[in-house]
Predict the structure.
Amino acid sequence: MARVIRGRIESGELRPRDPIPSESKLVADYGVARDTARQAVALLRSEGWVITLPQRGSFVADQPPTAAPERG
């Protein structure tokens, strides 16, 4: 799941400050458990790909990392 979102950021489909799909949308679109979606967003946040703003959602970081680690 994190790999899919990371790929969308790297390809330019999701640009800095764009919102990433909500947990509910990730669950519906990819057929994963909510916990899986939550873990993917948390991983991307810890890697610096996304930021989360309370009560607003998660967004692509202004300057995402340039090289993606091979995880998630």
User: Anything to note?
Assistant: DSSP finds three helices and two strands in the chain. Helices lie at 2-10, 23-30, 34-47. Strands lie at 50-53, 57-60.
